[in-house]
Amino acid sequence: MAERCAVVGVGQTHHKAKREDVSIAGLVREAAKMALADADLTWTDIDAVVIGKAPDMFEGNMMPELYLAPALGAVGKPMFRVHTAGSVGGSTALVAAHLISSGIHRRVLTVAYEKQSDSDAMWALSVPQPFAAPLLAGAGGYFAPHIRAYMRRSGAPEYIGRMVAVKDRLNALRNPYAHLHLADIDMKMVEDSMMLWDPLRYLEACPSSDGAAAMVLSSEDAVSGHYPPAWVHGTAMRSEPTMFAGRDQVNPRAGRDCSADVYGQAGITNPREQIDVAEVYVPFSWYEPMWLENLGFCDLGDGWKLTEAGATAFDGDIPWNTSGGVLSSNPIGASGMLRFLEVAMQVRGQAGEHQIDGAKVALGQAYGGGSQFFSMWVVGSEKP
Amino acid sequence: MTDETVTEPLGPVTTLATPIRLDFEFTPGVAQSRFLRGLEQGKFMGQRCPKCGKVYVPSRGSCPTDGVPTTEDVELANVGTVTTYCVVNVPFAGQSIEIPYICAQVLLDGANLSFMGLIQEIPTDEIRMGMRVEAVWVEREELKPSLASVRYFRPSGEPDADYETFKEYL
After folding, report:
1. Which residue among A184, A217, A368, B52 is the one 20 to 30 A from A327 at the CA level?
2. Could you report the per-residue pLDDT of A119-159, keeping only the tens digit for each?
3. pLDDT tens digit string along B46-63?
4. Which domains are seen in chain A, by residue range?
5. Which of 43-62 (B) contact A at CB < 8 A?
6. Is B170–A141 a contact, with Cβ atoms under 8 angstroms apart?
7. Is A76's Cβ below 8 Å from some Cβ in B?
């Protein structure tokens, strides 16, 4: 990258099933104001705004960026809307980062959101089409067969998914912004929850949340804020078609290529050794072991062994999703940005009770669509 | 009217439902027209890539891997293999099938890409990866250019396919 880029401010809403106290404009503004305050800046310091959310069909609010511009202080400034399905929060942050690294702007506000209580995502993802049978039942219905394929391919015991479901909800108890705070969560509670998309149970799936995330990104000469900056060490995005012969739906090539790219930029040759903490998009429990393999933290087929051994737990050697992750808060459009934001908080040392002591290098990952869009960044406490 | 009629405290408006209805025109293009016309005749039509030889059903008219037009039409078998599946047990707005139902990836014999198919005439706890299934079509006079022409798939009675024969399609 030509110019160094830093995260100097972060903000997020309290994610909840229903934020009836705010409109969408109020929701995004709440996160943006927090990010500006954290960066010790005001609206007038911002050069451009980059906003992202998942499909407009969810809230039925078409091109919401048009009406959100004033709420985000974007009047008279460049404003961009990004969309890459569930990975959009990550790719939105990356578009903002590239406006800094290219030298075009010095301070960019980036925001992502979803207001699922205004939305019907299950309906919006299951619209009948003449060339397909009307069978798709939301994201869970799409991913459950691929999870079954992973279980068959790896020989993982069925309790691995439940372990992830429990671990991420225990982590969420450390995060005041998380939607789910399930103090009594344990393996039995997950096992007793309703089977929604066999083999996926209710508590192995993410909740539906209202929420927004925001960051202020800055060039090196404009760094500000109450905490040390998180420096961007690498950014990468990849896509692939939803369907092609020989496509590996369990371990998609786009994800492997994306991680190879971002690791190359950040000088990472051994992710498990060199990455201190990671926030990875795990909307269904089994995607933790699947992405452990896709992201190269272990050999193929061994992801579930890391989960089983506690390597990804809060006190493990590669803590994953100490914030509670997507399994604990899922404002869809914001969920990817929350991964990127949370790892910035970790290397800035501002993650409070879910802080991993001494975190210096961290990976944020988001995926979307039918595992066809990937976005990642590596941030560090030291300049690249 | 006096002011008294409007002084009742009503509280803020938090949410209101505004239903959306969406009717859309669909232009299938040349390649998908072949697939849809095939369904109208009670058969699955695919296309083969001239470079890699893979057979796509439905075909989009070009090979996603090689980027070349697919020109050779291929009629696929009425039977195939369940590569993987889930049992849907969650209700949602607009759902047209009674839950629980089996949503499977069906790989037709001769094809190199699976598609989503409903499996019926079997208890949901007896479905398995590798099960052989056959398409059950609507009555001849009810056939139309839509996958609605296929009522569902059901077990064909053949022995299960070996995992090694379909694992590359997962």
Report:
1. A217
2. 988 888 877 777 778 888 888 999 999 999 999 999 999 99
3. 999 999 999 999 888 999
4. 5-121+207-222 (3.40.47.10), 233-380 (3.40.47.10)
5. 49, 52, 54-56, 58
6. no
7. no
